[in-house]
Amino acid sequence: MTKRVFSGARPTGRQHIGNYLGALRNYVALQDEYDCIYCIVDIHALTSMEDTGKLQHYIRETLLDWLAAGLDPEKSILFVQSHVPEVMELQTLLGMVTPLSWLLRVPTFKEKVKTQPENVNYGLVGYPVLMTADIILYKANTIPVGEDQLPHIELAREIVRRFNSRFGDTFPEPQAKLTEFPLVVGLDGKEKMSATLDNGIDIAATTEETRQRIMTAVTDPARRYRNDPGHPEICAIYKLHEYFSTNEKDSIAGQCRTAEMGCVSCKKLLAERINVELAPFREKRAELAAKPQYIADVLSDGAARARIIARETLREAKERMGLI
Ligand code: TRP
Questions:
Q1: What is the average per-residue pLDDT within 18-36?
Q2: Domains (range + CATH), the chain
Q3: In which band, very low, low, confident or very high, does the pLDDT at 181 lie, cut at 50, 70 and 90?
Q4: What value does the CA radius of gyration of the chain take, rounded to a whole number of Å?
Q5: pLDDT at res. 311
Q6: Which of 27, 132, 237, 324 has the most neighbouring CB atoms within 10 Å?
Q7: Which residue's CA is the closest to the ligand 1 atom numbered 13?
Q8: What mean pLDDT comes out for the span 263-269?
Q9: pTM of structure
Q10: Using CA atoms, how far apart are residues 136 and 172, in angstroms rounded to an integer?
């Protein structure tokens, strides 16, 4: 049987180049080898989103990014998490085999307790259980994710092991598949590129927006004057050159170290490279954005296909647990 891939993205805005390099290119490549399911996880988004007024808009933006990047609804199932409500039922059932202590130890949870202390809700603690439900509802084997998601996948494996040992072999243990560039640093040079931190460049940004964003980025802080030698290894702009200027990256690093090239020229060059690479994507996205009916059809078809698998797995899980 072809192995199944599952992955999800929270609809918190447009996808940025961190998503593109870290996940999206990988999702697209996997389509030819695996049976792929990609999910826009709107319920997960609710765990940290207080104003949900833009959720529908963000879902659409995420799908447009996916389609423009090459995810193909003929090959893969593309759907919205809440359109297959069986996932919430499975989450509740998995909650019965998940010790609370495991969840309280999860790094992303501990992080959120710090960043949103006023909104440490029950759903937030359950985030990894819902994520496990996402994956195992489809009995997925391979999970393409960035490095930051590894603790979640490890937890999913533990939940699966517990479930299987208590109720009999039901679910395969999912495995993370890291991308070649798992973690992309944001323009602030500190944190990972993230929609919430607003430190990224949207793939769908215009060429001018791309240029402006890059010009504001933080480079090597030791390089205060034009003639100060730079340290490419700690520079967020250089990191992006490594991805977008593969052939010239060594020469760029050299010119930075000797101060032959200043940060402004280096940034202009990067903007140029990114704009060239993303031009076909941006063109395709604009075409798709003009076809709202097509977008709606992709999602309803994806949900219908996902639901057939989900219903069957849920029935099996309930039977194993003695509910049927
Ligand atoms: N937690 C993931 C993220 O923030 C999104 C996600 C939800 C996911 N469910 C998933 C990823 C299942 C892989 C598999 O990026």
A1: 91
A2: 4-184+292-320 (3.40.50.620), 207-286 (1.10.240.10)
A3: low
A4: 21
A5: 98
A6: 132
A7: 7
A8: 95
A9: 0.91
A10: 7
